[in-house]
Amino acid sequence: MKSFIILLLGINAASAVTHSLKYFYTGSTGIEGFPQFVAVGIVDGMQIDYFDSVSEKNVLKQSWMEGVRDEKMITNTRKGNQQTFKANVEIGMQRFNQTTGVHIVQRMYGCEWDDEAGVTEGFNQYGYDGEDFIAFDLKTTKWIAPTPQAVITKLKWDSNTAYTENWNNYLTQTCIEWLKKYVDYGKSTLMRTVPPSVSLLQKAPSSPVTCHATGFYPRDVMVSWQKDGQDHHEDVEYGETLPNDDGTFQKSSHLTVTPEDRKNSKYQCVVQVKGIKKDFIEVLTDPDAANVVPIIGGVVALLLVVVAVVVGVVIWRKRSKKGFVPASTSDTDSENSGKAAPQI
């Protein structure tokens, strides 16, 4: 499943920075050893706090967040959401005629702000068992139900004008105000730049070559390939930007190339991180003088384990903010003014 990402082109050019504030809620059942409810807050890709149904206490993850908000209120709000999501899982199972098994209800909401153009955007969407369930459309201030099982929720929430107006106000105003406050408090961390470590990795001579960049900040990065000095996109697979547990990020790009072509052409991986003028380049030599690290042991773990800034929370596949297709209708102050989410 894919996480929500923003792809920025021309990242080394002078451009505006898009800041984001996102909250991820996950309610689950049937997962042994995993909390039934987890909530995580993220600013500009960096985790700011964490709550789960085991500890039932909100924990700050950044020192610059201390004293910014009423953490006791946040804890109480998330306890309320914990109960709501427990009910939502049960409701989802009923809607899909399920009685047993592993089932997950997820929610992602928040906002983005372009600090130069002033353009803002808000989002509030739910997923069930890895698929889109329902989302709020800011343009129409209506809820979009891409599946028949969500139509009941859509009709209920559309008819609740107070709830709709509250969310419209939160996403267009309150969320943006808090995002700006967080960015100001954490600017020494959020506005820093950290160069990447770049390696070329390959499992076997016939396997794709992986260009792996890690340890960089901010998350806005391009990992691309060139052939004989020209941009090369053929037989290239681009990975997602993933979080490391130290607040930095990692990203990979995979090139499929024959040993013969490696001998006859010059391939190189180019990594560009926003805010750093220097390009980081690794040249792919021919197989007889390989500078490619074999993928074994810890390198496998590095590539396969998605580091848990979202604390192991699986985020459902999001096609695009405009990708929700409606189904037929015939069938805290910083977190939504401190109010718990309603049941679906």
UniProtKB/TrEMBL annotation:
Its GO CC terms are: external side of plasma membrane; extracellular space
State which residue ranges cross the membrane. Answer: 292-316
Which Pfam families does the entry link to? C1-set, MHC_I
- Where in the sequence does UniProt note compositional bias of the Polar residues kind? 327-337
Please list where the region (Disordered) is annotated. 324-344
Q: Which residues form the Ig-like domain?
A: 196-272
Signal peptide (residue range): 1-16
**The keyword Signal belongs to this UniProt entry's keyword annotation:** yes
Annotated keywords:
Glycoprotein, Membrane, Signal, Transmembrane, Transmembrane helix
Q: Which domain of life is it from?
A: Eukaryota
Entry's Gene Ontology BP terms: immune response
InterPro entries from the UniProt entry: Ig-like_dom, Ig-like_dom_sf, Ig-like_fold, Ig_C1-set, MHC_class-I_related, MHC_I-like_Ag-recog, MHC_I-like_Ag-recog_sf, MHC_I/II-like_Ag-recog
Name the chain's protein: MHC class I heavy chain
State the gene name recorded for this protein: Onmy-UBA
